[in-house]
Structure to design on (535 residues):
């Protein structure tokens, strides 16, 4: 039976009953929808190809089991036990004496806010290209069309010269996002994922089956899956595997904390977590098959090897290489519609989870309604997103902001979270107890070691390595002043916002809260054990 006092405390803090998913299936679909995003389609295939091909699956699976799933469980445990968005959860986890830990939650919220601003722009591009696929509007020069006619890319700087082809779909995406958040967790987020996720899988399966029957598809698959066993001796390959798993699962920046907080008190956490993790990885492998079968056809048509192709990841793969392929293949328009439709659906289900992190935190901090928070956060985000990313300098700003927010911001968040939770607050045993108390799949003490030792070491190395590279080598050949303002300025904004928001008084204090189920720390000494037995 649910602890009445706990629910009363939670409701008093929030001012109203907490929203919930309708059940386990709804939560699983929403979590998979968040995890399966643009990176699954345009990042994993290229990363795998460049880091050992088939051999890459070994470090990939090791990273999934030793870091991805453990940190995913950590997010679930924090959100479900503390019953709040990231700032609320970290504050409650820390207790009354360590309220500064709340700033870690706002650090994650600020990262989500920044990512939401530019992630929406990429979905807007995909929406445009979905329409362009019907008449192959990019013509014979997809690269020139993208940077010239469509995005009208200018020099590094800041421009208010808007590009109508981006402005209109970007506005539509933001309107749709606000509507979904306004509808709530069950009627908005869950319903969109229940509809979009099956459609995404069906559309992508059709795309993959079509790609497998193209000339040269086998050569493309051989290029992807032929193992280079020597690559396993390269530490950078293992770092690439941990990096891919980490960025793919939507962990360590508030999403899964927030999503888990909407689960009912007695809800299995670890079982669904395994389903989400392996479903996400399965889609990545499916994406790899589809992408490289298609690239094999492209190489066949050009009379070159797959290794000689360019633009195998990211924006280049999706908006330059794939349009070029679509123009050459039989039934190209249908293939283009399926591909860019998949990008839109995968991106949108991830986007709404990112913005929900911000909306939920604002709702709880300022004691406003869900709808007020959705409209307020959505409107502010939409204005900033349009001003920054629908202009002639939008592509360059997006590229730089993405590099710093992801490779510095999110990784730093993960390192801080694991160290603070496990070593500073020493909540590892309590969170392990919580997972085991409500779940069917039990986690052992090794989970605490993976989260508290392995994860911060590997992620810390990734963070230091990336910061050194960005400082010494810069990025993309862009002027240092531009990288300082947009790149390091993004990190400065995230840090300052985290500090300032943590200092603002709560409308209704979240501290009147008792976690459920009750946890009693095990005695550390024989004397404590004897005293406990006597009492």
């Amino acid at each position: 039976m649910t602890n009445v006092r706990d629910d009363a405390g939670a409701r008093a803090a929030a001012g109203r009953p907490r929203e919930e998913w309708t059940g386990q299936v709804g939560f699983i679909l929403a979590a998979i929808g968040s995890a399966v995003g643009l990176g699954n389609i345009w990042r994993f295939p290229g990363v795998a190809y460049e880091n050992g091909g088939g051999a890459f699956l070994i470090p990939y699976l090791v990273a999934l089991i030793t870091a991805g799933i453990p940190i995913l469980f950590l997010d679930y445990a924090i959100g479900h036990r503390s019953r709040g968005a990231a700032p609320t959860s970290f504050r409650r986890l820390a207790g009354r004496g360590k309220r500064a830990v709340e700033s870690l939650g706002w650090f994650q919220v600020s990262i989500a806010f920044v990512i939401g601003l530019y992630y929406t722009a990429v979905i807007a591009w995909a929406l445009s290209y979905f329409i362009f696929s019907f008449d192959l509007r990019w013509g014979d020069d997809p690269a020139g069309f993208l940077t010239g006619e469509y995005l009208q890319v200018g020099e590094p700087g800041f421009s208010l010269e808007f590009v109508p082809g981006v402005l209109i779909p970007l506005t539509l995406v933001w309107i749709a996002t606000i509507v979904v958040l306004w509808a709530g967790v069950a009627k908005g987020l869950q319903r969109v994922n229940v509809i979009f996720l099956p459609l995404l899988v069906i559309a992508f399966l059709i795309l993959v089956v079509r790609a497998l029957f193209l000339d040269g598809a086998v050569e493309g698959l051989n290029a992807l899956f032929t193992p280079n066993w020597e690559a396993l001796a390269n530490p950078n390959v293992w770092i690439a595997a941990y990096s891919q798993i980490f960025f793919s699962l939507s962990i360590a920046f508030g999403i899964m904390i927030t999503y888990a907080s909407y689960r009912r008190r007695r809800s299995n956490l670890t079982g669904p977590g395994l389903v989400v993790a392996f479903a996400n990885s399965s889609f990545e492998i499916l994406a790899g098959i589809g992408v490289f079968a298609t690239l094999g056809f492209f190489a066949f048509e050009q009379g070159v090897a797959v290794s000689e192709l360019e633009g195998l990841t990211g924006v280049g793969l999706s908006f330059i290489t794939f349009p070029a392929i679509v123009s050459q293949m039989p039934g190209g328009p249908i293939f283009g519609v399926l591909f860019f439709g998949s990008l839109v659906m995968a991106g949108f289900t991830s986007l709404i989870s990112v913005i929900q992190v911000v909306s939920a935190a604002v709702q709880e901090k300022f004691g406003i309604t869900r709808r007020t928070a959705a409209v307020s956060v959505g409107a502010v985000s939409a204005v900033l997103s349009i001003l920054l990313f629908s202009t002639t300098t939008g592509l360059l700003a997006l590229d730089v902001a993405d590099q710093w927010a992801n490779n510095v911001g999110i990784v730093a968040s993960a390192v801080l979270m694991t160290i603070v939770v496990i070593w500073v607050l020493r909540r590892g045993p309590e969170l392990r107890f919580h997972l085991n108390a409500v779940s069917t799949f039990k986690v052992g003490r090794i989970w605490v070691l993976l989260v508290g030792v392995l994860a911060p070491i590997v992620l810390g190395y990734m963070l230091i390595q990336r910061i050194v590279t960005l400082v010494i080598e810069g990025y993309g050949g862009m002027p240092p002043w531009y990288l300082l303002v947009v790149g390091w300025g993004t990190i400065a904004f995230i840090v300052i916002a985290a500090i300032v928001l943590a200092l603002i008084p709560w409308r209704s204090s979240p501290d009147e809260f008792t976690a459920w189920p009750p946890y009693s720390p095990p005695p550390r000494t024989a004397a404590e054990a004897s005293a406990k037995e006597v009492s």
About this structure: Residues 1-15 have pLDDT under 50 and may be disordered.
